[in-house]
Design a protein that fits this description.
Length: 220
């Protein structure tokens, strides 16, 4: 009998297989290698390991993230493309004074530039991650710099538990900071561990009103 978790995994795999076939060379996955992105990167490695996995190299990642990303890519033969922030793009410690601008320069703009070469953008957003993500669909059109792109979220209906179960079932390695209480892992200046009872993304930009970097604001 097919379990609900197995059904979710089959659905996500079918969606990604369809996209890779329907848009040859035009599909990109973005991943930060912290949670759901590992599920999608693992699935992609079994379909088309040549499809790019876009990683925003903001310059502020935990060293553990960079090391884990490299090990993961090597293990699954993934083609990870590091999207680096232009040198001297922002004043030092802009994350303190203007985090929205910091995210725009280090995340949103590099991702938008990279996506110019693709028609489909796959991400690991889930509805249960936060209030701002409650209404996301599995597929949406997003207009980026005047060009429509198909944004696909195969895990939209997944729970955090579903992600954990998939990773355990398939023996996929986990980001080392997860066991230190980091339930959502971004740049070190803007990420703290969470405590029991807090939301998954409560440790991001903690103490401020900011909840999203801007990459997914159209969904929010
Ligand atoms: S998460 Fe923080 S450090 Fe990273 S780009 Fe955004 S404001 Fe800057």
């Amino acid at each position: 009998m097919t379990t609900p978790a197995a059904r979710l995994a089959m659905d996500a795999k079918e969606i990604m297989r369809f996209l890779v076939r329907a848009y040859p060379g035009r599909v990109a996955l973005s991943a930060s290698f912290g949670g759901g992105g590992l599920v999608l990167a693992h699935i992609l490695s079994g379909i088309d390991a040549d499809a790019p996995v876009l990683f925003l190299d903001t310059g502020y990642h935990f060293p553990e993230t960079i090391a884990f990303k490299n090990r993961f890519a090597q293990r699954y033969h993934l083609r990870v493309v590091d999207l680096a922030t232009p040198v001297d793009a922002t004043p030092a410690e802009l994350y303190r004074t203007d985090p929205d601008r910091c995210c725009r320069v280090r995340k949103v703009e590099p991702m938008h530039r990279a996506l110019e070469g693709f028609d489909v953008w796959i991400t690991a957003l889930r509805r249960d991650q936060s209030e701002t993500r409650r209404a996301i669909a599995v597929m949406e059109h997003q207009v980026i710099d005047g060009r429509a792109i198909l944004k696909v979220m195969p895990l939209a209906n997944w729970s955090r538990h579903d992600v954990e179960e998939y990773l355990a079932t398939h023996d996929v390695p986990l980001h080392p900071l997860l066991e230190m209480g980091y339930t959502s892992i971004g740049c070190w200046p803007c990420t703290r561990p969470t405590v029991e009872g807090e939301g998954e993304r409560a440790g991001r930009w903690s103490g401020t009103n900011k909840t999203e970097c801007g990459l997914h604001s159209a969904n929010a």
